[in-house]
Design brief:
Shape of chain A: globular
Oligomer: heterodimer
CATH class of the largest domain in chain A: Alpha Beta
Largest interface: A-B, 18 and 17 residues
Helix content of chain B: 25-40%
Number of domains of chain A: 4
Strand order of the largest sheet of chain A: 3-2-4-5-7-6-12
Radius of gyration of chain B: 19 Å
Number of strands of chain B: 15
Number of helices of chain B: 14
CATH topology of the largest domain in chain A: Rossmann fold
Distance between the termini of chain A: 39 Å
Number of strands of chain A: 24
Structural class of chain B: alpha/beta
Strand content of chain B: 15-25%
Distance between the termini of chain B: 33 Å
Largest sheet of chain B: 8 strands, mixed
Number of helices of chain A: 23
Bound molecules: flavin-adenine dinucleotide, iron/sulfur cluster
Strand order of the largest sheet of chain B: 6-5-7-8-12-13-4-14
Shape of chain B: globular
Radius of gyration of chain A: 27 Å
Chain lengths: 646, 368
């Protein structure tokens, strides 16, 4: 049985960070959870929305259309009195921030917990940002778990805290916690049976300075609670000259660093789990007599700067003069520099070694080189690219062709997610902007409305199907209303693919896999008054012509390029076998000069350098067959799955 | 030294010199055409390409082409090499009435198919999908030939379908505008693929200009129901008349001339000088054609068609010949002037390659 389902308090189990957060919510009796998927946060609601989990604990789980709606929905449940959870990745909090700014003022009733999973190093994001700055901006309590076990414990605690303070509480996770695995002890499950009710006296109003002052009072109350929290702790000798102040992943990295350097009995570690508001007294009390402080944390020097400004009031009175090290001093820096990229134990080791004057090389350059040559034998070298069989590769080829054939210098305004790849080789470098969800259409409202300044280049705005619902709609309505002229291309692969194939409103299934009302993109667009065309991007010529023709229209229009995500499709059906007829493939001699591998670039197509022809990697190939359609020599052949079975 | 697709793109396509003949499109998977706009979608990386070599708007050596087609350089700078100049029309009434003027083009193709001189003909007909958009079509019988009759006044990229049909091995006739005839002849001059021998007959149309499809179609669709067009004509260079099943529309010729492709303004060939047979209007009798029989193959086919009573002819009046020569000569002189204005030291007449004596002959409008 899935360990999250177990009702065996005290049992040690292995869990992924995001599962631990989900379990913490379950142990707290959470009854409503909502999110918009986004790595590294997706598995939180992904786990809670599993039919077995949702049924067993009786909560509602949903993929909302975007983060602000998710947060508003969760707040609604809280206003009714239930405990509610909302999860998102770092970009999401930007989307949710408007509501967030006021819900902290209005307060809430049932415990309301917002988990934001940051992505230091931007492994799965197009931006690197530290969401903790919001906690300060919001005057909201912020918790930073340091281990998998703490992820669960602090999530559970966050609900109590939220109810005690009558305001939402924010938890910050990071990729290396959300996606790491660790063991933890299961706790009892709170079988809280509340009947939600919006009482006659319930008011949740954000009313300017009045509620702002109430908020400040709550923040002071939070600080008092944090002073006593056992999640904040000090380990190490008393009277240490150097103390590392850390939070989140920095906790285990710092311990590893001290152990490696043999400095555990010389250097102390002050671990903060409540990083806003800071537990002032707790920090000052642990820095008596300390001469050096090293700050270790992910991304921005958030804690570093807040603690420094706190200590300014104490140095020279309760505290001695302290020399500070961290991102500000440049001691804590990734290969990109301080406050950039991820931290790791090596970074902490190097910082401590530099401060303490210890001669230690975490990793010799020769070692790094040996490791990479060794590894390269096991991993194929590949571009950042659309997957094999991905309909977007064909869609981008369609756009490239249509733009060239239109010939008026048209260009593509991009979207993030898989579509971000449209800015690279996989999308033939045709995305010319890359910002956030829906911004392609929004930016097109500007560039598409410059005709009176004699701007005559056609504008194409790309959006994913999930983006369409998430953020593109207001821009599309704006285009209609304000007369911006552009062609929207909705790349509809019937999945929120990059974040893990979550369903969305266009699919007809909800988060728990049950049938749901299907909101068709074409119906919405037609309702808005757009001329809409739908094509299969694998029927390349038809799609090119459709896009080209739409670009000639006087009014804005929408092209839906619809084909199921290659990975989803290949899971469902037996695949056709695609192979290259080596006799027919002319390779470099062909006018195409290796179209399939040099230009089209599906990862399943390989150039056989020795025999000078292309071939297909059968393991990677999904059998989509679009390369066979496109090969000018018809050298790529398709054997249908049905025929193969016979 | 020959050049490649990057040069084709910069010197021809982006310089607005593309005639829309379609030759390069059929040669390469990266060169595509949509609504008569030709574009290179991706770079193939070659510095020596057939696309560049066969294009009628890259260096075109008239002397060498004349020698290949006719075995000699021309003496007639206005009409090019020819054997006979006559007026003709299709003998068959249905063919005659389906044709643009005398229906001679259609009649000759039908005759060549019937006699097995060719097995297929690469022609041009309106697309079923898009209004007034001509597309390449292969005709193999009378019915299919007649479905293509009538002039489409835009730069149909007929030759984009040429390479595919050559691969079938069928004996082939091609009907095209002068730019297209030039492209075919350049291919024959520079390429030795055996399948080029399949081209048995090249019939050229007289042509002073073709229109830019996009602007022309947009204008027309505001005027008439273009889905019901029967015929388009410019009788005696007056109005441009579009006859539809539901009435006709007249567009002043000067309005129509705004839509002329820029490439046509620098086109020096009016009468398809490199064709086996060239056919145009007569400008004095609507249902007759002007026919210039040029090559040996052309002469043989035309004589055979006459004998088989596929076409009838009459004498081309001397005063009409003078008018024809004056019209053609005028355009040539204008174009040569424009070409030398735009030419450079390495390419004095842009795409046209003439030696000094030829050039003098052209400028004088010399005659044989
Ligand atoms: C763009 C254009 C401009 C012309 N300008 C002149 C001119 O200024 N003076 C003059 O005397 N004659 C001109 N002609 C030629 C004339 O219109 C007739 O095509 C010619 O006289 C043959 O008449 P027909 O009755 O034999 O034609 P038909 O028997 O009707 O046969 C016409 C043939 O032309 C082909 N065709 C039609 N449109 C095109 C096209 N756009 N590109 C290539 N092939 C095509 C068809 O395949 C068809 O087989 C022009 C033709 C075109 C296409
Ligand atoms: S004129 Fe013909 S060959 Fe030259 S670029 Fe245009 S279509 Fe290609
Ligand atoms: S005028 Fe010349 S370039 Fe233009 S369509 Fe006629 S033959 Fe071609």
């Amino acid at each position: 049985m899935l360990s999250i389902l177990l009702d065996e308090p005290g049992k040690r189990v292995l869990m992924m960070g995001n599962e631990a957060i989900a379990r913490g919510a379950i142990e707290a009796g959470m009854k409503f959870c909502a999110a918009y998927p986004g790595s590294p946060s997706s598995e939180i609601i992904g786990t809670l929305a599993r039919p077995d989990v949702a049924e067993n604990f009786g909560h509602h789980a949903e993929w909302s259309t975007n983060e602000v709606v998710a947060l508003e929905a969760a707040a609604g449940a809280s206003f009714g009195g239930l405990r509610a959870l909302c999860a998102m990745k770092q970009n999401g909090i930007n989307v949710a921030s408007d509501f967030l700014m006021s819900v902290v003022m209005s307060g809430c009733k049932g415990g309301l917990v917002l988990v934001v999973a940051d992505d230091p190093g931007a492994h799965c994001s197009n931006n690197e940002m530290d969401s903790r700055a919001y906690a300060r901006l919001l005057d909201a309590p912020l918790l930073e778990p340091a281990t998998i076990e703490e992820s669960k414990e602090m999530t559970r605690w966050a609900f109590e805290l939220s109810e005690e303070l009558e305001m939402p509480c924010m938890i910050r996770s990071v990729t290396r916690i959300s996606h790491a695995r660790g063991d933890l002890s299961l706790g009892p499950i709170n079988r809280l049976q509340r009947t939600p009710r919006f009482e006659a006296y319930d008011r949740f109003l954000s009313l300017g300075t009045v509620t702002h002052s109430v908020l400040h009072g709550k923040l002071e109350k939070a600080r008092d609670i944090f002073e006593k929290s056992q999640f904040n702790q000090y380990v190490g000798p008393s009277g240490a000259e150097l103390v590392i102040i850390t939070c989140g992943t920095g906790w285990l990295f710092s311990r590893e660093a001290l152990r490696t350097l043999g400095l555990e009995d010389k250097v102390g570690i002050l671990k903060l789990a409540t990083t806003w508001p800071l537990p002032n007294r707790f920090i000052v009390d642990h820095l008596k007599g300390v001469k050096q402080v090293l700050f270790v944390e992910e991304i921005d020097p958030f804690m570093e700067q807040n603690v420094k400004s706190l200590l300014a009031d104490y140095i020279g009175s309760e505290l001695e003069v302290i020399k500070f090290f961290g991102k500000g001093s440049g001691h804590v820096r990734s290969r990109f520099g301080p406050a950039l990229g991820e931290i790791d134990p090596d970074i902490v080791i190097r910082a401590v070694a530099e401060i303490k004057g210890v001669d230690y090389q975490a990793q010799t350059p020769e070692y790094a080189e040996r490791a990479s040559t060794l590894l390269s034998e096991y991993t194929a070298s590949r571009d950042l690219a659309f997957c094999a069989g991905c309909p977007h590769r064909a869609s981008y080829w369609v756009m490239k062709n249509a733009l060239a054939l239109d010939g008026r210098g048209g260009f593509v305004l991009g979207d993030i997610g898989c579509y971000g790849m449209g800015a690279g080789r996989s999308g033939y470098f045709i995305n010319r902007t890359l910002h956030c969800m829906g911004s392609g259409a929004g930016v097109a409202c500007g560039l598409g409305n410059l005709a009176k300044f004699e701007f005559d280049q056609p504008v194409v705005a790309v959006m994913g199907d999930s983006t369409f619902f998430h953020a593109a709609l207001p821009a599309l309505i704006n285009a209609r209303y304000n007369g911006a002229k552009f062609t929207s291309v909705v790349l509809d692969n019937s999945a929120t693919a990059m974040t893990g194939f979550q369903p969305h409103p266009g699919i007809g299934l909800n988060a728990m896999g049950n049938p749901a009302t299907q909101v068709l993109i074409e119906d919405v667009c037609k309702g808005l008054g757009f001329h809409v065309e739908i094509r299969d991007p694998f029927k390349v010529d038809e799609a090119v012509e459709a896009l080209h023709d739409l670009m000639q229209r006087e009014e804005s229009s929408v092209l839906i390029l619809r084909h199921t995500c290659g990975l989803v499709e290949s899971r469902k059906k037996k695949k056709d076998r695609i192979s290259v007829n080596a006799e027919k493939c002319l390779g470099d001699e062909c006018g195409c000069a290796r179209f399939c591998t040099r230009v089209f670039g599906c990862p399943a197509l390989i150039w056989n350098e020795k025999e000078k022809h292309a071939s297909v990697d059968e393991v990677v190939c999904t059998g989509c067959g679009v390369c066979a359609y496109l090969c000018p020599q018809s050298a790529i052949e398709v054997e249908k799955a049905e025929e193969l079975q016979r | 030294m020959n050049k490649g697709p990057d040069d084709l793109q910069s010197e021809v396509q982006q310089a607005n010199l593309c005639a829309g003949c379609g030759m390069c499109v059929g040669l390469c998977p990266y060169i595509k055409e949509m609504d008569e706009k030709v574009a290179i979608v991706e770079r193939c990386g070659r510095s020596d390409g057939r696309c560049y070599r066969f294009c009628p708007r890259t260096s075109t050596d008239i002397g060498a082409l004349d020698e290949m087609v006719f075995g000699a350089r021309r003496g007639d700078a206005v009409l090019g090499s020819y054997r006979t100049l006559t007026a003709a029309k299709a003998a068959n009434a249905a063919t005659h009435s389906a044709g643009q003027y005398g229906g001679v083009v259609s009649a000759l193709i039908i005759h060549a198919l019937k006699k097995g001189v060719v097995e297929a003909a690469l022609l041009t007909r309106y697309s079923e999908r898009k209004q007034v958009l001509p597309r390449p079509t292969v005709a193999r019988n009378r019915k299919e030939v007649l479905a293509c009759s009538g002039s489409k006044y835009t730069a149909a990229p007929t030759l984009s379908a040429l390479q595919d049909i050559l691969k079938t091995g069928e004996k082939l006739a091609v009907v095209g505008r002068p730019c297209q005839v030039t492209a075919i002849r350049k291919m024959q001059l520079y390429d030795d693929r055996p399948e080029l021998k399949n081209i048995k007959l090249v019939i050229g149309l007289f042509c002073l200009w073709a229109l830019d499809y996009r602007r022309y179609a947009a204008h027309l669709s505001g005027q008439v129901n273009v889905s019901r067009i029967r015929k388009i004509d410019i009788p005696k260079n007056d109005d441009f008349i579009v006859y539809t099943n539901g009435g006709e529309a007249r567009v002043p010729i000067n309005k129509i001339k705004e839509f002329i492709r820029p490439s046509c303004q620098v086109c020096f060939d009016v009468t398809a000088e490199l064709a086996d047979i060239s056919i145009g209007s007569t400008e004095w009798q609507d249902d007759w054609n002007t026919v210039l029989v040029r090559s040996e193959a052309g002469e043989k086919l035309f004589a055979d068609a006459l004998k088989a009573k596929a076409v009838t002819t009459k004498k081309f009046p001397g005063e009409r010949e003078a008018i024809l020569r004056e019209a053609v000569g005028a355009k040539k002189r204008r174009v040569l002037k424009e070409l030398s204005r735009r030419g450079s030291e390495s390419a004095p007449l842009l795409y046209l390659k003439l030696d000094d004596s030829q050039r003098a002959l052209f400028l004088e409008g010399g005659n044989k």
